[in-house]
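User: Hello! My lab partner asked me to get a predicted holo structure for this protein. The small molecule is S-adenosylmethionine, SMILES included with the sequence. Please write out the structure tokens.
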Amino acid sequence: MAEYVLGTHDEELWRLGLQHQVWRAQATALWETAGFGPGQTLLDIGCGPGFCTRDLAWVAGISGRVIAVDESPRYIDFVNNTPTGVGAAPIEAHLGDVQALDLPDECLDGAYARWVFCFVRHPDKVIEGVHRALKPGGRLVIQDYVHYLAMGLSPAGPALDRVAAAVRQSWALSGGDCNIGRRLPHLLTERGFRIDHLEPKVRVGTPGTLLWEWPTTFFRIFVPTLVKMGLLTQEEHRAFTEEWEQRSLDPQSRFYTPIVVDIVATKLD
Ligand SMILES: C[S@@+](CC[C@H](N)C(=O)[O-])C[C@H]1O[C@@H](n2cnc3c(N)ncnc32)[C@H](O)[C@@H]1O
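Assistant: Hello! Below are the structure tokens for the protein in complex with S-adenosylmethionine.
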């Protein structure tokens, strides 16, 4: 199985931890909207190192159960070797492709996927597998990009715009779609889900905040990869580094995140 485009090395694992801190409140609010709660069996689709998985284990509680699936052996090991806490649900982490989920029929009350659909070649297969595994009335919660190139600086930052376009290309080359949120509603309703909640979200960060750190860590890790992939020149890399460093020193700078869409969908009977 090809590894996901951002890799599974230590720095990416740490970046996912920071990312989780930045976006955690949005995730937990959406789980509440979806009615995730104690005693339920919940699935974390493409769990990565399990930052959401461990939070979901607290939501499901001691009488619940959390299943986590990811294609990365490194991340699954990390999930299995990181304690949750007394009172949290037990976590079962499985190595596997979320496009070929192999769970018993109608075993889940809820399922969650954050920034996974944007990386898979066959989102319809993921939805099909989740639909089979959910009980009727069970909820699928998704947070993913709907307009990636909405990301940008204020005042405008042309070097960042160039990097964002290269990121988009890199995901497309490995079968992903960084505007997947636009296709999801149709794919969900086609497969027998009802959309209960659909809300685009954009956030704005300033230098010195955790929200500014989020793109900073992403670019530090991934921009050199874009050069190696031939999607960005050394000169564009240099121009971007200079632009980002300058903006990071200016308290008036603003970073607009890509537009993320929050979706809650219910499996119809
Ligand atoms: C950006 S990370 C998000 C991790 C986690 N959902 C979170 O929000 O912290 C994307 C994850 O999707 C996983 N992934 C991508 N394609 C996959 C596939 N086809 N099957 C299983 N996992 C996949 C990657 O290994 C990676 O851990």
